[in-house]
């Protein structure tokens, strides 16, 4: 088996695009017409992130402060310190991995948890 894509729900596609493109540095991929707005992002190895502009059924639900204790997407990055600086510059809070690994957890504008770990 191989991961094809991960789908994440977002309420504001423009705010999400700013985060995924300007903070994380991802590039858009072609997306077929699916009957609702969304964006695909390419990942190394052929996988993709699919942002879907749909109402989030979990809005208002309690989520743990530390994303490592929540459902999350893990992405390997070449420059964790560079990502950390980008998050700080954008005013996006994050927590360092509690395992001691070179990794951090943050949330996108819709609260989707993301783990970023040094590759």
Q: In summary, what is this structure?
A:
The protein contains two helices and eight strands, in the order βαββββαβββ. It has 119 residues and is of the alpha/beta class. The protein is globular.
What does this molecule look like?
18% of the residues lie in helices and 33% in strands. It is built from two helices and eight strands. It has helices spanning 13-23, 80-89, and strands at residues 5-10, 28-29, 38-42, 48-53, 72-77, 94-96, 103-107, 113-118. The protein has a four-stranded mixed β-sheet with strand order 1-4-3-2, with helices on one face. Strand 2 and strand 3 (38-42) form a beta hairpin. The chain is globular and about 45 Å long.
Task: Identify the notable features of this structure and list them briefly.
119 residues; alpha/beta; 2,3-Dihydroxybiphenyl 1,2-Dioxygenase, domain 1; four-stranded mixed β-sheet; 2 helices; 8 strands; 33% strand; globular
- Provide the helix percentage: 10-25%
Largest sheet: 4 strands, mixed
Number of domains: 1
Number of helices, counting only DSSP H or I runs of 4 residues or more = 2
What's the CATH topology name? 2,3-Dihydroxybiphenyl 1,2-Dioxygenase, domain 1
**Topology, number of strands:** 8
Q: Give the strand line-up of the largest sheet.
A: 1-4-3-2
SSE string, helix = H, strand = E? EHEEEEHEEE
Tell me the β content.
Answer: 25-35%
- Any idea of the CATH class? Alpha Beta
């Amino acid at each position: 088996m191989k991961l094809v894509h991960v789908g994440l729900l977002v309420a504001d596609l423009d705010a999400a695009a700013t985060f995924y493109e300007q903070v994380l540095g991802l590039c858009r991929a072609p997306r077929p017409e699916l009957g609702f707005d969304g964006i695909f992002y390419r990942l190394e190895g052929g996988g993709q992130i699919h942002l879907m502009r749909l109402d989030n059924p979990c809005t208002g639900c309690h989520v743990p402060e530390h994303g490592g204790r929540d459902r999350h997407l893990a992405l390997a990055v070449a420059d964790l310190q560079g990502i950390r600086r980008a998050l700080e510059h954008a005013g996006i809070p994050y927590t360092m991995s509690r395992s001691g690994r070179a990794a951090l957890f943050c949330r996108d504008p819709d609260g989707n948890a993301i783990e970023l770990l040094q590759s």
